[in-house]
Write a structure and sequence with these properties.
This protein is α+β, with helices and mostly antiparallel strands and about 280 residues long. Helix content is about 25%, strand content about 30%. The chain is globular. The structure holds zinc ion.
């Protein structure tokens, strides 16, 4: 699964000790992943790494060596090139895509949370970047992750429910998905989203897999479910322009890159779940 599986020790306990953090920064093996407003920096199909600056955030330890993330918007490197994370997902080895996603999400959160949401004072990074603390009111702010449920809905006739958002090109369809709301269980969010977007009532909702989705900080939670039947799908809340059943043969052709239907790119969990369904898993 792309954006997942970074072989990294996040050093959750050690990073709370300022003297340990200082030693990591000073370590001659320390390297930083570089990100600017134009994207993550890549060179020759690999992440471009450089010694960390004082403001770099600690991602963790990779084979014992400290790995940081650095915002280089003010001083971009002379070598390599910036890439969006979607582009990086197809250029980098899977392991480095996961690190790029982690670095991108963490840096984006720090960039957008420089001020306390409680009192408005300027906040300071703590624990190597896994927290920001407000010196005025002592509020603790933690990097947010936004849970999104995504659902593989099938029916009794071996068909798959897919929707097309209005801003997507003609023919592009994917699994139904949406943010989890306050006070909901994941299963409730699955049922609500699919009902809202298609009018379809679900049964047998079960969890399948998850994938970090760093745009900027979502966590995709993949579920399968079966339609209760009796209702023809129709766009409900205005998010989808089209929603309908596709038979297995139609989806199979799309997976081979044939026909009118276009599926999500291979690095997306939507595509992984669809491919698993096609394979009979
Ligand atoms: Zn505050």
């Amino acid at each position: 699964m792309i954006f997942a599986g970074a072989a990294l020790d996040r050093a959750p306990l050690e990073r709370k000790r300022p003297e340990w953090l200082a030693a990591q920064r000073a370590d001659t093996r320390a390297r930083a992943i570089l990100m600017s407003e134009r994207g993550i920096w890549i060179d020759g199909g690999r992440l471009l790494l450089a010694p960390p600056t004082d403001g770099a955030l600690l991602l963790g330890l990779a084979d014992g060596a400290p790995l940081f993330a650095d915002d280089v918007s003010g001083a971009e490197p002379a070598e390599g090139h910036p890439a969006g994370l979607r582009e990086a997902a197809t250029e980098l080895p899977a392991e480095e895509v996961a690190l790029a996603g982690y670095a991108g999400s963490l840096l984006a959160w720090h960039r957008r949370h420089r001020f306390c949401a409680n009192c408005g004072a300027q906040t300071e990074p703590r624990d190597g970047g896994h927290e920001r603390r407000c010196p005025a009111c002592d509020a603790h702010h933690f990097p947010r992750t936004d849970p999104v449920v995504i659902v593989l809905v099938t029916d009794g006739e071996d068909r798959l429910l897919l929707g097309r958002q209005a801003r997507w090109p003609e023919g592009r369809f994917s699994l139904l998905a949406g943010y989890v709301e306050p006070g909901e269980t994941l299963e409730e969010a699955v049922r609500r989203e699919v009902l809202e977007e298609s009018g379809v009532v679900l049964e047998d909702v079960s969890y399948l897999a998850s994938q970090p989705w760093p745009f900027p900080s979502s966590l995709m939670l993949g579920f399968s479910a079966r339609a209760a039947g009796g209702v023809a799908p129709a766009p409900g809340d205005g998010e989808l322009a089209e929603v309908r059943w596709f038979d297995r043969e139609e989806v199979e052709r799309a997976a081979r890159g044939e026909g009118e239907l276009a599926l999500a790119p291979r690095y997306a969990i939507a595509r992984r779940l669809i491919d698993a369904w096609l394979a009979g898993a």
